[in-house]
Amino acid sequence: MFNYKARVVRWIDGDTLQVEIDLGFYVQTTQKIRLARIDAPEMHDTVAYRERQAKHARAVARKFCPEGAIVTITTTKQNKDQYARYIAEVIYNDTNMSDYLIDKNVAKLYKK
User: Fold this and answer.
1) How many angstroms separate the CA atoms of 6 and 90, rounded?
2) Whole domain around residue 89: which residue ranges?
3) Residue 15: which of 39, 49, 50, 37 has the closest Cα?
4) 55: domain CATH number?
5) Given the DSSP bridges, would you call strands 38-39 and 108-109 parallel, antiparallel or unpaired?
6) pTM value?
7) Beta strand residue intervals within the chain, DSSP E
8) 2-37 burial string, b = 16+ CB within 10 Å, else e?
9) pLDDT tens, position by position, 23-58
10) Which of 14, 48, 60, 94 could form a disulfide with 40 if both were Cys (CB 3.0 to 4.6 A apart)?
11) Rounded to a whole number, what is the distance in angstroms from the first to the last CA of the chain?
12) Helix residue ranges, H only, 27-70
């Protein structure tokens, strides 16, 4: 397990965010992170109500953990999805973002 401090740059959708990660020794990288264990509606869905659900999920995430917030990212080595995003647990104010979005009913547990 690897833990990093990061600053939220922007929320892409309800389960994906872009962060600036502090790697130490004055080294930083910007990466897209997919929240582990959950699935939220996609922003570019062709069905209008699903797109509205996606915008709502992103708004809930953004309201709780705004852009510029400092988060802790926990990931394992080589844990990427098919789009080369790191899959990670993201903690903000001692709250796991995946659990928070499930509790707010804007995301569901990811099933393979």
Assistant:
1) 10
2) 2-109
3) 39
4) 2.40.50.90
5) antiparallel
6) 0.91
7) 2-13, 16-24, 27-35, 38-39, 70-75, 86-92, 95-96, 108-109
8) eebebebeebbbbbbbbbebbeeeeeeeebbbbbbe
9) 999 999 999 999 999 999 988 888 889 999 999 999
10) 14
11) 22
12) 48-64
Q: Compute the half-sphere exposure of residue 9: CA atoms within 13 Å on the CB side of its CA.
A: 14
**Partner residues linked to 12 by β-bridges:** none
100's tokens: 């928070």
* Domains of the chain: total: 1
- The per-residue pLDDT for range 67-105, each reduced to its tens digit, is 999 999 999 877 888 888 999 999 999 999 999 999 999
The secondary structure of residue 74, as a DSSP letter, is E
